């Protein structure tokens, strides 16, 4: 026959075991990053000027590599990351004056659009603006 003391601690041991298993699953299980790899086209607006832009993104998990081409302006390459629907890319360029573009934005829930802010810094100073890019083949979505 099992004592009353032994029976009353059994449910609490089970509770703590399940809690520990649940917490360890949360600590090791990372949600999969949204898929944003692909080609995007749209505009970058800097100081009230709209500039046609093309962005190529490669993705491995939550890490990104990309290149941004501002038509008739510059081409920049670099890397970044995606967290949830948010993304950050740091892209370097050098046209006689080394600089960096930083894109900080969000993807739409279906991943067809990227929108956010851009900061451009080089030897001439720092300016900010906005970007809006649509994934190739996603017209009308």
Salient structural properties:
1 helix, 8 strands, 18% helix, alpha+beta, 141 residues
Describe what you observe in this structure.
The protein is built from one helix and eight strands, in the order αββββββββ. The chain has 141 residues and is an alpha+beta fold. It has an eight-stranded antiparallel barrel. A hairpin with a 3-residue loop joins strand 5 and strand 6. The longest helix is centred in the first third of the chain and has 25 residues, at 4-28. It is globular, with a radius of gyration of 24 Å. The protein starts with a helix and ends in a 6-residue tail after the last strand.
Biggest β-sheet, characterized?
8 strands, antiparallel, barrel
Number of helices: 1
How much of the polypeptide forms β-strand, as a percent range? Answer: over 45%
Q: What spatial order of strands do you see in the largest sheet?
A: 1-2-3-4-5-6-7-8
């Amino acid at each position: 026959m099992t004592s009353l003391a032994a029976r009353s601690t059994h449910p609490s041991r089970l509770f703590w075991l399940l809690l520990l298993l649940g917490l360890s699953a949360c600590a090791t299980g990372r949600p999969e990053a949204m898929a944003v790899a692909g080609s995007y086209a749209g505009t970058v607006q800097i100081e009230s000027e709209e500039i046609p832009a093309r962005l190529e993104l490669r993705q491995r998990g939550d890490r990104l590599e990309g290149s941004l081409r501002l038509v008739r302006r510059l081409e920049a390459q670099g890397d970044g990351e995606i967290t949830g629907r948010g993304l950050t890319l740091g892209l370097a360029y050098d046209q006689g004056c080394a600089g960096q573009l930083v894109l900080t934005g969000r993807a739409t829930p279906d991943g067809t659009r990227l929108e956010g802010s851009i900061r451009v810094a080089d030897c001439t100073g720092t300016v900010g603006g906005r970007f809006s890019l649509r994934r190739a083949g996603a017209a009308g979505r």
